[in-house]
Amino acid sequence: MPEMVFGESSLSLLHISSGIKLHFNALDALRGWKQESLPPVEVPAAAKWKFRSKPSEQVILDYDYTFTTPYCGSEMIEPNYEKGLHWQDTDERIDLAALSSREPILFYDEVVLYEDELADNGVSLLTVKVRVMPSCWFLLLRYWLRVDGVLMRLRDTRVYCAFGSNGNAEPVVLRESCWREATIQSLSAQGIPSDSAAYGDPNLIVHKLPIIMQKNQRLEISR
């Protein structure tokens, strides 16, 4: 498990009239990590990382100890609503212009779901941020990995819902997932500074990391 798991922290959004609930939590995220089961990242310090307790106990980390997760959130319908939910691929995109407008922010919060400092060799961090404006709400679920001297990985999930004129109508919810990743060696070859300590904030490097996966989806309701 990560060094810090905030199992009692979560973010939930509920549309009362339709019963649709979106939920973001550490347990489901770690289930995704377990299912994806990536191979361990090979690093120069691997010999040290393989022993998290006494060396004599020979505890070998042969699993993905970066806790990389494909998790995009959880969704459900509240009891007593006879509906189903699924995400459908779409050409619709999140309205970035609406998000950049100077609307007042009615509510904002950031929730840390889990974090690990990789034995002082970097950081593995999963957070979710949400903000609510008069015309919409928007959230960013971000997994950020920096293995010093080796790798940077960013997995962003953005979810957006514009408020309609009819509050009882089923909401239109769009989700965009984007995965970026690069080795420090490949970034250095492009002339990008290889000092990992300079990238404590992923926003400083996000547009320099190549996209390896991207998809746009819309939440569909079936009866």
Summarize the structure.
It comes from Ananas comosus. This protein is mainly β.
Helix share bin: 10-25%
Strand order of the largest sheet: 1-6-7-8-9-10-11-5
Span between termini: 38 Å
Total helix count? 4
The domain count comes to 1
The biggest sheet amounts to:
8 strands, antiparallel
Q: Pairing-aware structural class of the strands and helices?
A: mainly beta
Strand content: 35-45%
Name the poorly predicted regions: none
The total count of strands amounts to 11
> How would you name the oligomeric state of the polypeptide chains in this document?
single chain
Helix/strand order: EEEHHEEHEEEEEHE
Shape: globular
Structure description:
The chain is mainly β and 223 residues long. The chain has one domain (4-222). Helices cover 12% and strands 41% of the residues. The chain is built from 4 helices and 11 strands, in the order βββααββαβββββαβ. The protein has helices at residues 26-36, 46-49, 96-100, 184-189, and strands at 4-5, 10-15, 20-25, 74-77, 84-89, 107-116, 122-132, 136-147, 151-162, 173-183, 211-222. An 8-stranded antiparallel beta sheet has the order 1-6-7-8-9-10-11-5. Strands 2-3-4 form a 3-stranded antiparallel beta sheet. It is globular and about 55 Å long. The two termini are 38 Å apart. The mean pLDDT is 85.
